[in-house]
Amino acid sequence: MSDIYDRDLDQNQANHQPLTPLAFLERAATVFPDHIAVVHGSMQISYRDFYRRCRKFASVLAGRGIGRGDTVSVMLANTPAMLEAHYAVPMCGAVLHSMNTRLDAGVIAFQLDHAEAQVLITDTAFSGTISSALDLATLKPLVIDYMDPVFPQPGDRLGSDDYETLLQSGDGDFAWLMPENEWDAITVNYTSGTTGDPKGVVYHHRGACLLAQGNAITASMPKHAVYLWTLPMFHCNGWCFPWTMSAVTGTHICLREVRADAIWAALADYQVTHLCGAPVVMSTILAAPASQKRDLTKPVEFFTAAAPPPESVLSEMRDAGFNVTHLYGLTEVYGPAVVNDWHEEWNQLSAEEQAALKARQGVRYHALEELDVLDPETMKPVPRDGETLGEVMFRGNVVMKGYLKNKQATDDALAGGWFHSGDLAVVYADGYIQLKDRSKDIIISGGENISSIEIEEVLHKHPQVTAAAVVAMPDEKWGETPCAFVELVDDGSVSSADLVDWCRQHMAGFKVPRHIVFEEIVKTSTGKVQKFILRQQAEKLAREQEG
Amino acid sequence: MSDIYDRDLDQNQANHQPLTPLAFLERAATVFPDHIAVVHGSMQISYRDFYRRCRKFASVLAGRGIGRGDTVSVMLANTPAMLEAHYAVPMCGAVLHSMNTRLDAGVIAFQLDHAEAQVLITDTAFSGTISSALDLATLKPLVIDYMDPVFPQPGDRLGSDDYETLLQSGDGDFAWLMPENEWDAITVNYTSGTTGDPKGVVYHHRGACLLAQGNAITASMPKHAVYLWTLPMFHCNGWCFPWTMSAVTGTHICLREVRADAIWAALADYQVTHLCGAPVVMSTILAAPASQKRDLTKPVEFFTAAAPPPESVLSEMRDAGFNVTHLYGLTEVYGPAVVNDWHEEWNQLSAEEQAALKARQGVRYHALEELDVLDPETMKPVPRDGETLGEVMFRGNVVMKGYLKNKQATDDALAGGWFHSGDLAVVYADGYIQLKDRSKDIIISGGENISSIEIEEVLHKHPQVTAAAVVAMPDEKWGETPCAFVELVDDGSVSSADLVDWCRQHMAGFKVPRHIVFEEIVKTSTGKVQKFILRQQAEKLAREQEG
After folding, report:
1. How many other C-beta atoms can be found within 10 angstroms of the C-beta atom of residue A500?
2. In sequence order, which residues have a C-beta less than 8 Å from that of residue A256 and are 6 or more positions away?
3. B73, B119 Cβ separation under 8 angstroms
4. Which domains are delineated in chain B?
5. Taking a C-beta distance cutoff of 8 angstroms, is the pair A326, A305 a contact?
6. I need a surface site. Which of A152, A255, B28, B39 has the fewest CB within 10 A?
7. Which of B200, B212, B251 is nearest to B229 (CA)?
8. Whole-angstrom Cα distance, residue A9 to residue A456?
C-alpha cells in the first residue's frame, strides 16, 4: 500500500464545498428566472422573484440579529411563505422549526421554549391557538403575522410586523450565508410524541441536499415537474420536496386545504406530474363528485405513506389516472427513506396480488446507505422469511443529527451505529420489508408475539368496520391478550360475538381478540391512533373484570 | 447565537456514511436482481450477476494483495470488463486508472510508471502496443489479459492470467470495502497533455457519487433508462455514466466500435433512451445508409461535447429522432460539469438562432457549486456582455482532488480557490457561457485579443473547407498575427487569396489571417488539434519570411 493518493491532494475551496439544498434555488433562479416556481391561487411567482423574496426575507432576519444557530419557528399552511421559509431561514444561517398546524397551545408553547425560538411566523388563521401558546411560553419570540394575500383568513394579528411588509423592506441581493459545514443544522421537526415530551429531530444541510436529490431519482422526476402540495409541509419539511423542486426547476402548486375540487382543478389546469399524501388524500380525490373530476392527459405519480393502500383504492386510483407508489419513513429519516420500488412484471399479477406486494414498505432510497430489520438484542439481521419479526433500522446520510438537547434519547436512538425506528417488520426473500407493528404495540400472549396490525387488517376487512385499533390487555393466564377498539359504519349493527367469529375465520385462535370495544378511537392531532390511551382503557377493563 | 445545534449531535455510523457510487450497484442488484445491467453483443448480464462478477473480481485483486491506495490500470474498450473495473477496483480499495486505447507505447509506459500500477488489465486487441509499453516501463505490473468472449480480437496474450478465468475463481460474496472516507481516491485519469508530461487527475468517491447523480438529474433519466456506450469509457470514466446507470437501475449497451450499423441496431433493438458522444458520433449516425437506419419509437437523448453542434447537424439529428444537448467539461471536473440547459421557448426560434444558442456551453451542473468566467489577474467576474473574455473557472465537489504526485501543478490549477480551466469564454446576459479559446491559443495582435475559434468558425463555413486551425504567428510589427491551417474537400481548389477574401467579408480586418497553410492538421490520439505543433510551424514560417 502506497500513500500517493493522499499526498498533496487536500481539500480546499476549489474542490470541496458544503452540500446544501439552498444552492438548488440559486441555480434555478439563475438559469430559468422566468419559469414559474410557485402557484398559489391566482398568484404566480417566477424563480427570479422566488429567489429574491427568499433573499429579502433572509436579510430581514439577519437585520434583526438572527444568525447561525438561531431558531425561527413557523406556524404556516402550504403557502408561499412556508416555501420561502425553507430557504430564507437557513440563508441567514438559522434553523427552521415548522410546527404542525393542528397542535394545541400547550405543545406549541413547549416547542417554542425548547427550540429557543427567537422568531415566530404565524398565519393569522392560527392566531387563536398561537395567542394561547404565547401566553404559556416562557420565551417571547418576535412574532410576525402572515396574512395570506390570496386566501385571507379570519384571526387576529398578534405581532407588530406582518410578513409581506417586512419582506418588501429586505434586500433582494442579500449575500446569503452558505453553511460553514454541511453538518450544520438546517431544520428541526418535533415528533408528535404519543408519550412524554415531543423530541426535536435535527436535520443537516448534507442530508437535506441528498434526500432532495433522492426524491428526484426515486420519483423519476423530470426537469420542470409540477408538484401539488397535498402533503403538509410541516411533515418532515414536506419530505424535502420544497428543495427537490428547485433541483429540477419545477413548479410548486400550493394548497391551503386538501379539498377535492381544488385538487382536481390543479391537477388539470397545471398538468401536475407528482403529488404526495396520506391515504385520506386518495379517498378525497376518489370521493369527489363527477362534476369536480377532470380528465388527466398523462398518468400522475402519487406517493403515499402512513398506511398501505388497500386493493380497492389502488384500482380506483389507477382507473382515475394515478400511479400510486408506497413510501415509508419517520421524522428521524427526513420523511421517506424507504420505497416500494415497483417491478414492471408485477403489473401482470392479479389486483389482489398487486395490492399485497404494494402493501410492503420496500427497500432503501438511494440516499439512505443501509436499511435492515435486526434483532434488537443481537443486532443481527432476521432471516429473509417474511415471518420473523425484527426492528427496522436505518443507517446513512439521511438519518438525523439527533434529538435537540436530549443526549440520552439521541444515544438510545442511534445505539450500535443504527437508528432504531421502533417499528417491527419482516423481510421477504426479495429483500422488501413489511411493517408489522410498532415495537411497543406488539402483544405477547402465552409467549407468542401477536401483531396488532394483523388483527386490525382482518377487522378492517369486515364490511361494517370503518376503523380498528388493537392493543394488549393484561391477562393473568396469558400475560397479555388482544383487545380491539372498533368504529362501525353509520347504523352498523354487528355484535362483539360476530366480530370474534369473523376473526376466528381469518386468523389463528390465539390471535383472536378477547374483548371488543365499540367507540370512537382517540387520535393525535396528526391523526395517529393514541394507543397508549387505548392501553390504559384496556388495563382498566382488565382490572374491572378481575374485581 | 446559541450552540444548541452543535451540542451532543455528532457524526456517528448511524447518521454519517461516506458517499460512494459503489452503493448504487449494491442497491440495484438487491432490488432488481433480474434486470439486465449489461448487454454486449449476444451476452446479457443481470444486475445479480453483474454485482457478483464485480465482487468476484474484487476478491481476486484483494487476494493478490491489492488494497487501499494501490493502482489498477486498464486498457479496455467499451466492454463488460471495463464496466466491471469501475466497481471491482474500488471495491477492494484500489484506484482505477483507465487509459485511452489510442495512446502510444511511450505514453502508456509513462502512465504505468507514474501511477505505480500494480495490475494491468488489457484487451488483447491492444497487446501490440501494450507489449512495447511494458518493455519501456520501469515497473512490471501483473498483466491480466481480457479476451472479449463475444468479439474475439486478434493479438497475443501477454500475461499468464486471463480475466475471465481469474474472475471465476473469485468469491461472489466478497465483503467489499467501503471507502474509509468519501475523500478517498476512486480513479485517476491522465490528461492527454499537448505539452509536457501527462498529468494524473485524481477523482474521489464523493465527487463520483455526486456527478453520477447529477447526470441522472441533468438528463431527466428515468428508472430503467437504457444507455448506449458511444462515448469511450476511458474518457473521464465515461463522464461517470458507469455509475449513473446503477443509480437508476438502467441498462448499459456496450459498443466496441462506433459503427453506424451497430448503433442503429442497438437504438432500435434495445430502445436506447440516452447516449453521449463527440460530434463525430452524430456524423456517423447521420451518414449511415438508409438500409441501416431504423425507426425510433421515442425521442432519444444525445449528449455531446468537445465542439458546438452545427446548425445542419442539429436539424438532421432532430429529424432522425434525437434531442441533442450540448455539454462541456474537462478531465479535471469529472467530464461534464456544464450543460446547455435548454429553454422550451427557444424551440420557437429559427433554426439558425437555435443553433447559435445551442453553441453556447451553458451553465453549471447541479453537482458543481460554482461556475464563472473570471479575469485571471483580478479574479473578478467579467461583465455579462457576451464580449469580454475571461477564464472559465470551476469550484465545487466535482473538481478533482488534484494532480497525482504533482503539487506544483495542483497548486497552480486550484490557486485562489478556483480550478483554472485554461479556457477563455464570454458570459451572456442570461448567465450562459460560451468558449472562445484556450488561454494559450489566444492571439494578441496590436494589443487586441483575437479568438482563434472565431476565425476557425468563419473558415469552416466556407464550402470547400473541411477543417481549420488557427494559431498565433510572431510578427515584428503587431506582436502576433493569425496563421490558419486548412484542410479542403477532395478536389478542393480554393486559393489562399480566396480564403483571405472570405474572411475579410465575415470579420474585422485585424482578425483576418495573414497566412494560410494547406495541409493535413496534426492531431492527438484523442482527436484534439495539436496547436503547439502548429505554433512551431508558424514560428518557423515567420523566421523564414524574415530571413
Report:
1. 15
2. A77, A78, A79, A148, A151
3. yes
4. 442-546 (3.30.300.30)
5. yes
6. A152
7. B251
8. 58
Q: How far apart are CA B81 and CA A318, in angstroms?
A: 42
User: Is B189 within 8 Å of B236 (Cβ atoms)?
Assistant: yes
Place of cell 448506449: B228
Question: What's the pLDDT score for residue B241?
Answer: 98
Band of pLDDT at residue B193, cut at 50, 70 and 90: low
Q: Which candidate, B460, B470, B449, B547, places its Cα nearest to that of B514? A: B470
Cell triple for A116:
429557543
Arithmetic mean of pLDDT, B112-121: 98
pLDDT number for residue A196: 67
Contacts of A407 in chain B (CB under 8 A): 8
Contact A108, A133 (CB under 8 A): yes
Three-state helix/strand/coil letters over A72-86: EEEECCCCHHHHHHH
Alpha carbon separation from B159 to B119, B122, B130, B147, B167 (Å, rounded): 11, 9, 11, 11, 15
Please tell me the distance from the alpha carbon of residue A485 to that of residue A468, in angstroms, as a whole number.
6
Q: Is the pLDDT of residue B461 over 90?
A: no
Predicted-complex ipTM score:
0.89
Report strand pairing: A390-395 vs A370-375.
Answer: antiparallel
Cα separation, B207 vs B398, whole angstroms: 5
Decide: B419 and B399 in contact? Cβ < 8 Å.
yes
pLDDT of residue B197: 78
Question: Is residue A522 classed exposed, middle or buried when 0-12, 13-18 and 19+ CB atoms within 10 A define those classes?
Answer: middle
**Nearest by CB to B1, which of A1, A67, A418?**
A67
Cβ(A309)–Cβ(A327) below 8 Å: no
CA distance B38 to B55: 16
Instruction: Quote the pLDDT of residue B444.
Output: 81
**Which grid coordinates belong to B217?**
438529474
pTM: 0.90
Strands A322-330 and A300-304: parallel
**What is the tens place of the pLDDT at every residue in A202-260?**
999 999 999 999 999 999 999 999 999 999 999 999 999 999 999 999 999 999 999 99
Considering only CB atoms, B4 lies closest to which of A67, A69, A394, namely A69
CA distance B230 to chain A (A): 24
Residues A60 and A91: beta-carbon distance below 8 Å: no
Count Cβ atoms within 10 A of the Cβ of residue B101 and give its class: 0-12 exposed, 13-18 middle, 19 or more buried.
buried
pLDDT at B388 over 90: yes
pLDDT band at B86 (very low <50, low <70, confident <90, very high): very high
**Residue-level pLDDT at A234:** 95
What is the DSSP pairing of strand B226-228 with strand B251-253? parallel
Q: Which of A1, A2, A5, A210 to mutate: most B Cβ within 10 Å?
A: A5
> A211 and A337 in contact (C-beta within 8 Å)?
yes
Q: Chain A: give the shortest CA distance to residue B21, in Å.
A: 10
Number of H helices, E strands in chain B: 17, 27
Identify all chain A residues contacting B3, using CB atoms and an 8 Å cutoff. Answer: 69
Which ranges of chain A have pLDDT less than 70?
A: 1, 192-196, 525-526, 547
Q: Cβ–Cβ of B5/A202 closer than 8 Å? A: yes
Mean pLDDT, range B161-174, rounded to an integer: 97
Task: Report how far residue B397's alpha carbon sits from residue A13's, in angstroms, rounded to the nearest whole number.
Answer: 9
Mean pLDDT, range B97-101, rounded to an integer? 95
What is the average per-residue pLDDT within B5-20?
Answer: 96
Helix (H) or strand (E) run with residue B370 in it: strand B370-375
